[in-house]
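Field: sequence (string)
Field: structure_tokens (string)

Example rows 1 and 2, in order.
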Amino acid sequence: MIVDDHEVVRRGIAEVVERADGMKVVAEAGSVADGVRRAGLVHPQVLLVDLQLPDGTGIDLMTQVRPLLPDARAIVLTSFDDDDALAAALEAGAAAYLLKSVRGAEITDVIRAVAAGRTLLDERTVTRRRAGHEDPTENLTPSELKVLDLIGDGMSNREIAEKLGVAEKTVKNHITSLLSKMGLQRRTQVAAWVAARRHSSWRADTGQH
């Protein structure tokens, strides 16, 4: 069962899965509530779950489905390469953590491994990643940190320049510098990184922890 709020993503994954031997998509859902309801109806063996859903998170979904289907295995499929999300997925019982940038063949390999009872996500993975991930913003200047935050708010270079009262060229220079310090290539990667940080608490506060 595939749970993702983007229909295009769901359809793409479904096509890959349906082409693989011995696999069938039994249901699709676009929200936590819909996912829990459908899982109860179709009893999937494996759940492929996005972390960000309109009414909560994939972690909420996994937590709510577990009492209904204790034997179902869950794979988190997300665009966020984020340590807190990884740790939350592990805590909620996910058997694997995949980034949406993976190739189709990798998705089916992971589904097959998880369906066979293997777990590809463990405490060592999380600890090892955390040890290797220093804070990429620690060398940024106060001005660069401000620019970083405003990029995360979706502002254009011109809007950032107006907000900070500096020339647009200055903003561009700050961005070039912060990209270099953070080891990123594009402004869009900065926006994604900020979004991931801001979603470091993946459990929606519904009282169901």
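Row 2 begins here:
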Amino acid sequence: MNTMKKVVMAYALLMATVLFAEIAWQPDLESAFDKAQKEQKVVMVMVEGEHCRWCKKMKYRTLGDESVEKRLVPYVTVKVMEENKKAVEALPKIDGVPTIFFMTADKELLESLVGYYKVDDFISFIDSVEQKVPLKKQ
């Protein structure tokens, strides 16, 4: 393969990565809420279990969908393992996994959902969150 083709392919790969970026998960609750405070954003917390197959489906099928990823760009996102008791104690009551909380930067609960949701249903859920708290424009 000649050099020009390599350059074009590398550029195409880079653009695909930028355009179809994955969700930028924060490493922990504290950094997620700190970032949300600084940027005046809503936090989406996903609580999952280590051996939960529905959590994996939610992560890879729903949250991994390009249209959902785009909708979640204006949010600060963080994953919490159900087994992390200290982190779980800092959250509202969890009735099962996966659980997703949408919360203000001040840790006020806006909406929550429990279980696996398909892409269209999850996008409808995001719409209902945004009716309560309009997003800050990027």
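free_text_note (row 2): Confidence is low (pLDDT under 50) at residues 14-20.
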